[in-house]
Amino acid sequence: MSRNFAPIVKWGTDKKYKKVDDFLLRPSVEDKAMEAAARILADVKERGDKAVIDCARLYDGSNLSTRRIRVTEKEIAEADALVDDEFKAAAQEAHKRITEFSIGGLRDDWQMETPKGGMLGEKFVPFDRVGAYIPGGAAPLASTALMTLTLAQVAGVKELVACSPASADGKLNPYVIYSLNLAGATEIYKIGGVHAIGAMAYGTKSISKVRKIVGPGGPYVTAAKRQVYGDVALDMVAGPSEIAVLCDTSANAAHVAADLLSQAEHGTGSEKALLVTTSQKQADAVRAEVLKQAKELSRTEPIEQVLENGMLLVVVKSMKEGMLLCNLFAPEHMELICKNPEKWVDEVHNAGALFIGEWTPESVGDFAAGPSHVLPTGGTAAYFSGLTVEDFRRRVRHVQFTKEDLEDTLPVVEAFGRIETLDGHARSATIRFDS
């Protein structure tokens, strides 16, 4: 493999390090993707189903018609027959764990008394219709079906829509169909890419508009999601996968290398993998393992792309400096593999999900642990959080005043109405006490 693959560099707070700075400054959404997405979205908005079918043939490479766009009950039954028992058991176990974690994350309606006998509070109302995007081009992400719609199911959403690209024969991967059905999908459509986002956001004759779109995707799906914000609600910017591993000399180099490669194989070419270590010797050992293990994995081409353009191994003077660098990177996934990792947990401020200790590879978060694997990318973990069950519910605030409560707050209402020159606001309260 090329000498340029997985370069090793030093970093510190003493000066600028261009290679590291360039690595940190990845865009959350790519400009070329924004332009292409805008063009496709406008077409879907104008031509509806016709544009969706044209795009499915052009971009998904699938032979579809409007009549065949939705997965039928017969196709769901056929998928169930094709899926092996081992996977069914694994999917059911993952679904159980995700369900339990989601139930634990539900907030109860609450209320409190006002000073004069009234009531304030909040109730939580599920969306009536949501859409989940399930990547399926480079790899059929059956796990994403569970990591999105299971949460919506627990939240009480009634209409659970899913879109995932079909293969050339116009069929959807049976493992994806099985997982979507297990997660409670009420409608499954065989389309992917920007056109799927447009169909869910704007609605077509075949696909009714949703209230919110969730789920990860490549650069073009991410760009499309950003542009439909306002037409629908969104979860976050969830694009190409990222991982950062912060470790000291106690970490096993082979394990660290495997973890870095786990996020390099998705296939968009925009994935990022960062190692931060306190030892040059360890960086050398991890790099050797990366190059060795990369040859043994099946998805060689996308991995080599990331090794050349998206992987960086950084040597720092201390764990403290390493933590600073990881927080600057704000990765989707962060692993902390060091002696007494618990003492560093509170220092992690910017990460979509944190995996603590040598027995917690990021892959358990992707498939099995319980929290959703839909997480912010492109540095947006500095201000977004991962998908939770509460993302499928809206808060409705309750205010119920007594006459005495209104009288008690009248001076406040009048003062703000005067300062903000909104005398109509003030009058709506004062008029109730006019004799």
Explain briefly what this protein structure is:
This protein is of the alpha/beta class and 435 residues long.
Proportion of residues in extended strands: 15-25%
- Gyration radius, rounded: 25 Å
CATH architecture label of the largest domain: 3-Layer(aba) Sandwich
Structural class comes to alpha/beta
Number of domains: 3
Q: Give the integer mean of the pLDDT values.
A: 94
Principal-axes shape call:
globular
Distance between the termini: 88 Å
CATH class of the largest domain: Alpha Beta
Give the helix level as a range of percent: 40-55%
* Number of separate strands: 14
* CATH homolog superfamily of the largest domain: Nitrogenase molybdenum iron protein domain
Query: What profile does the largest beta sheet have?
Result: 6 strands, parallel
What is the CATH fold-level name of the largest domain?
Answer: Rossmann fold
The succession of helices and strands, N to C, reads EHHHHHEEEHEHEHEHEEHEHHEHEEHEHH
Quaternary structure state of the chains depicted: single chain
Strand order of the largest sheet: 1-11-10-9-12-13
Output the number of helix runs.
16
- The low-pLDDT segments are none
Q: Main attributes?
A:
single chain; 435 residues; alpha/beta; Rossmann fold; 3 domains; 6-stranded parallel beta sheet; 5-stranded parallel beta sheet; 14 strands; 43% helix
